[in-house]
Write a structure and sequence with these properties.
- By secondary structure, the protein is of the alpha+beta class.
- The chain folds into two domains: 33 residues; 115 residues.
- Helix content is 58%, strand content 13%.
- The protein contains seven helices and four strands.
- Strands 1-2-4-3 form a four-stranded antiparallel β-sheet, with helices on one face.
- Helix 3 crosses helix 5, helix 4 crosses helix 5 and helix 5 packs parallel to helix 7.
Length: 187
């Protein structure tokens, strides 16, 4: 099969060369491996930008120490450790803020970043983001949000993510099983 040259930035070639050296592959082997995996993953998909954004966000979450915890387990932990619940909530919200800041710095579209980070940090809770002209809304609804500790935990995580994106919260309503936060993004 004939080879084809594709122009790429020199900085990228240097980065890949360093990675290839570290992994013991040649630059050609590394590039072919990356392209094969990309082609296999993206074949027949129309949402390529979304897939790449998701992988960037999930890489940030892993790099910064985020670990999804099943919500049923988290609910039990928060109930049994009521004295430490505030600390757990505060530390997790801080982690969510760091992940959001990293994602924001990478240029991921704000609503996409907010949605993906929120859904990852709050597994098993359906989260919807309703996009408005000027004001947007996050709705999280789940029977897992039945205790004050769990509702507070989820609310603080959402607020930390929004804070990282410099969003202004206009409404914050929480009831048993439901969180409804309206916000405006900084333009």
């Amino acid at each position: 099969m004939p080879r084809r040259l594709i122009p790429v930035k020199e900085e990228l070639v240097h980065e890949l060369a360093a990675i290839a050296k570290r992994t013991g592959l040649t630059l050609t082997e590394l590039t072919e491996t990356i392209l094969k995996h990309a082609a296999k993953t993206l074949r027949g998909r129309d949402d390529i930008a979304e897939i790449l954004a998701d992988s960037t966000i999930h890489a940030d979450i892993t790099r910064l120490g985020g670990t999804p915890i099943p919500l049923q387990t988290l609910t039990k932990i928060l109930q049994q450790c009521s004295q430490q619940a505030q600390t757990i909530t505060k530390e997790t919200a801080n982690l969510a803020r760091l992940i959001a800041l990293s994602t924001k710095a990478r240029g991921i579209e704000p609503l996409k970043g907010i949605a993906t980070i929120t859904k990852t940090m709050l597994p098993n809770i359906p989260v919807d983001i309703i996009e408005g002209e000027q004001e947007h809304q996050i709705i999280a609804a789940s029977p897992h949000l039945s205790t004050p500790q769990t509702t507070q935990y989820a609310t603080e995580i959402i607020k930390a993510i929004l804070e990282a994106y410099e969003a202004t919260i206009t409404t914050n309503e929480t009831t048993k099983g439901l969180i409804n936060i309206k916000f405006k993004l900084k333009t």
